[in-house]
Design goal:
Rossmann fold, alpha/beta, Alpha-Beta Plaits, globular, 28% helix
């Protein structure tokens, strides 16, 4: 008998009534360490087949998603399929994404751009291929910051894409942090792909318990809830005259997050794409 692998089918309701639901589910899945997501159905009623990096966590993931999204009409079904290379199938369609001067590309689409900077990212469990709105918003705001020759801290680095973008923009001291071991493994591979292993310090750490030295630019593409809970600790990492870039914030969270950080910093900018927001602050 051929080996099988456990996965989940996420069956969305009609998105005309819930246009924000795919983005919300996508962000929730990031916390569950997906190995691959295979999309089917149509634009108004898609189905996602989700494979976790650790299939043993499938039951717990289903319960987490049901608790958050069943009331919005998301159906979750357990499935066992032949153990094919679903990760490769799901990722093969990804191509480059360009934001301003920065192009983020998978290895199979990594020809250097004629005009601009290239970051190569291998899609994996680490969040950040450039295809999600929250990453694109961060990339745009990062290019507006004073990065060259500065110290950068990237909180929740995921794939390492923002740390690599800062490196391409000329940052001289970069520290990329994530509490998730799978993300660290993915980020290490991406540092190697870009030749940045000796330039970017990658560390498995949790902001809530581990010390982090302040920086001139701090990026934090997390979640609205985590940003609110750790606002004081994150703001404290920004040096005088420095910049803080926040993302992973839904439109209905932006006022609360903005207020929490304005207690310590001056808000400079807000960027928006669909239901997502990113904020830029400066310390005077």
């Amino acid at each position: 008998m051929a080996p099988t692998i456990r996965c989940l089918d996420l069956i969305f309701p009609n998105l005309a009534d819930h246009p924000e639901l795919p983005d919300q589910v996508s962000l929730a899945l990031d916390d569950l360490s997906p190995a691959a997501i295979h999309e089917a159905g149509d634009d108004l009623a898609p189905t996602w087949r989700v494979f976790l990096a650790d299939p043993r966590r499938t039951d717990a993931a289903a319960m987490t998603l049901a608790a958050r999204f069943a009331s919005s009409g998301l159906r979750i079904e357990h499935v066992e399929v032949d153990d094919e290379d679903w990760a490769a199938r799901s990722q093969a369609h990804l191509t480059r994404v360009t934001v301003g001067r920065m192009t983020v590309a998978p290895p199979w689409d990594a020809a250097p751009p004629a005009d601009g900077l290239l970051v190569v990212v291998y899609p994996s469990t680490g969040f950040g291929t450039g295809h999600h709105q929250t990453t694109r918003l961060c990339l745009a705001l990062l290019q507006q910051a004073d990065v060259a020759g500065r110290r950068i801290v990237d909180l929740g680095t995921g794939s390492g894409v923002l740390a690599l973008a800062a490196w391409r923009l000329g940052a001289s001291d970069i520290e990329a942090l994530d509490y998730d071991e799978d993300a660290i493994v993915n980020a290490q591979e991406n540092l190697r792909l870009n030749g940045a292993e000796s330039t970017i310090t990658l560390r498995q750490a949790d902001l809530r318990t581990d010390a982090v030295a302040p920086a001139d630019v701090v990026t934090a593409n997390l979640t609205g809830a985590l940003l609110l809970a750790q606002a004081l600790a994150i703001a404290a990492l920004v040096r005088p005259g420095g910049t803080l870039i926040l993302s992973g914030i839904l439109a209905d969270e932006v006022d609360a997050v903005s207020t929490a950080f304005r207690a310590e910093l001056a808000q400079v900018d807000v960027a928006a794409e669909n239901e997502w927001r990113a904020l830029r602050f400066r310390r005077g």
